[in-house]
Amino acid sequence: MAAEKNVARIKVKKIMGREEKVMKAFFYIIITAFALICLFPFLLMITSSFMNEKEIITEGYKLFPKEINFSAYKFLFNNSKNLISSYGVTITIAVVGTLLGLFFMSMAGYVLCRKDFKYRNQIAFFIYFTTLFSGGLIPSYILMVNGLGLKDSIWSMILPGLMSPWSIFLMRNFMKAIPDSLYESGAIDGAGDFYIYWKVFVPLAKPSLATIGLFLTLGYWNEWYNAMLYIQSSKKYPLQYFLQRIVTQANVQLLIQQGITVSTADLPSESIKMATAVVAIGPIILVYPFVQKYFVSGLTVGAVKG
């Protein structure tokens, strides 16, 4: 009887093992197919940026063009001086905005997670309240232009995205998981609050900082709306707003206003749209792998801890 039971158990394990392998293979196929579907528009965008203008107009966008044409990239990099300056503006606001945002929001999260701070719940309520209601576009515009005098200033694109209630609460929840004994030991040794925050809490909050930093960088890199409202000088256009102007108003009159002199026959307008998209997302694709390992853990801890 014991031998028969062992044989039956072995058969059951083999069947379960086969079923598990089949299920894994099935899910791998589904995930691979889904990844390819998501990758298809990206590949189509890249290949279309190298297509001839006439081929796009007559045959549409294709993964495998008949010939490789670099006219769109030559136009962007050889004729457009504003592209380089817009890249510089976007890099500036992305770096400055991300660093300042991480600094202020991590300090806010540190203060709100401190149990000895008497009014932390009241302040947290006011921060949460801003996620439900806002002042609106007109008061915001009046504040930025008349109150702060930031018309046609790079700071008008940095300040609106500097603080995020969601990111502050994510930072607070993450810092709640840090043992209070670390703060107490630092206080016993005579360390001040800022020293404890900077030397103890910030190094331990790298996953949360990387997660929030990624969101901030993406937000500033894709900035165009505030530029449309506040920026007047073409030299201060961020990359996305500059490319948006090219895509929506790609005609000879706009190009002449921007100091670009080309004939209509030399203007690959359709391939320019794809080339500008490739130029815009390239740096973000290079940055994302470095913060990916922190991304999941930062989101998970911030979501689980209450």
TrEMBL record:
InterPro entries: MetI-like, MetI-like_sf. GO terms for cellular component: plasma membrane. The keyword Transmembrane applies. It is found in: Cell membrane. Its main location: membrane. Pfam families: BPD_transp_1. Coiled coil: none annotated. It is a multi-pass membrane protein. One of its GO terms (biological process) is transmembrane transport. The keyword Cell membrane applies. Keywords: Cell membrane, Membrane, Transmembrane, Transmembrane helix, Transport. The chain crosses the membrane at residues 25-46, 84-111, 123-142, 154-175, 196-221, 272-291. Belongs to the binding-protein-dependent transport system permease family. This is Sugar ABC transporter permease.
